[in-house]
Amino acid sequence: MSDTNETHDPTGNETENVFDLEQFDEDFESAEYDENDASDGLPDGRYQMIVESAKLERSKAGNAMLLWQMRVMGPRHSGRRHWHRNMLMSAQNMKWLKRDLYTAGIRITKTSDLPGCLQDFQDVLLEVQLKTKGDNQNSYINKRLSAAEVPDLPGADDDGDDLAF
Fold first, then answer.
1. pLDDT band at 44 (very low <50, low <70, confident <90, very high)
2. Do the domain assignments include residue 4?
3. Half-sphere exposure (CA, 13 Å, Cβ side) for 15?
4. Taking burial as the number of CB atoms within 10 A of a residue's CB, which of 19, 41, 147, 160 is the most buried?
5. Measured in whole angstroms, how far is the alpha carbon of residue 97 from the centre of its chain?
6. Residue 122 confidence (pLDDT) above 80
7. How many distinct structural domains can be found in the chain?
8. What's the CATH number where 126 sits?
9. What are the DSSP calls for 74-120, one per residue?
10. Number of H helices, E strands in the chain
11. What's the N-to-C CA distance of the chain in angstroms?
12. How far apart are CA 99 and CA 94, in angstroms?
């Protein structure tokens, strides 16, 4: 390759480089970046989501909470992540926790049963509504969905015609 502004083309043709990108090499090498893992906030609205996991954690303030990790299935913002939190600090929190658990089909009789059923959350399909009030976005679990209600779910419209037997 010559010292001119040419780049190698795998087809064997030499092409002219119309951009002087070398001037940015040092800046690019030293640039810090935040990895985009599709976890930026979602706009307000209703979403079809699948629960990927649930775990008991502590908030930054040290308070106990149930953290649901979900992924949007569609039809908008497919693949984006959302975290639904149930704080575990007061009687009012217990009302929201019970409502969310029962809506998701997770039936427990006491909160001390929660650690033993966290695996039951995985792959649950939900309709979740996000609403912003002031500076905070609230997350509401509206209903549990069936696979037929989530058209973007792999295999949701699979009628079995392609089975080998």
1. very high
2. no
3. 9
4. 147
5. 20
6. yes
7. 1
8. 2.40.50
9. ESSSTT-EEEEEEE-SSHHHHHHHHHHHHHTT---SSGGGGGGGGGG
10. 2, 7
11. 58
12. 8
